[in-house]
Predict the structure of Probable 2-phosphosulfolactate phosphatase.
Amino acid sequence: LPTAESIVPAELTGCTAVVFDVLRATSTIVTAIAHGCRGVVTVVDTAEAQEVAARLAGENTPVLLAGERGGEKIPGFPHGNSPLEYPPEVVGGKVLVLTTSNGTRALNATIEGTHTVLVGSLLNARAVAQKACRLGRDVTLVCAGTQGKFSLEDTLAAGMVVLEMVEMMDPGWLCSNHQPPSLDLADLAVAALHLALAYRENPRRAFNRSHHGRKLFSMGLAADLDWCASLNTFEVVPVLKAAKKENGYPI
Ligand code: MLT
């Protein structure tokens, strides 16, 4: 469970990486794709996001420009980073260009060297686990965190994916204390799994105990928290592809 900044290529080479920024970037991406969004271009830099959106619009591609910093919509941007901004009637058939404080940075940092990068959240945890099992490669779970710090909600979502994988591939793991598991889990993954067992019946409760969850609540974004806590609402698993600037970000 490395954070984006701590990623070293050796941990990622050839693996399936799953990136989590539950509050709210990956939840927003999963929601947009589930609601018919044509594709999401994840960008780190604000000016580059504006440039990408202008380029796509110039090519008559229907595009939405969205950005967040510190939980707020970037001044001058038409859209922010709430998943509730992207119902089908708004996002269907369009390309979403998104830049956020932590999530898009983690996604774009993970793409180097991995075999596949999946976008994970509580909304699609079971579908992510099923796809990771089908891909049959080592899995690295990347938690975006907040400003480089540990994030309870991201680790909870990672733990939900681990729990789903264990139940699919090694159900005895949960009940046996002695049988060597067939799934080789890192200790951090075991810790995340137990976090998931603790909050499985009510993931929303975890957001009341997380720093970023409390911040968003204080900003009047309780509806976002309710949405992002909704476990296994969608079966979509967005896959991140490296879009090179010189290729004009093909979607
Ligand atoms: C992030 O990328 O750090 C989050 O998505 C921030 C937010 O939207 O509150």
User: Anything to note?
Assistant: Residues 21, 23-25, 68, 71, 81, 100-103, 146, 216 surround D-malate (CB under 6 Å). The first strand starts at residue 16 and ends at 20.
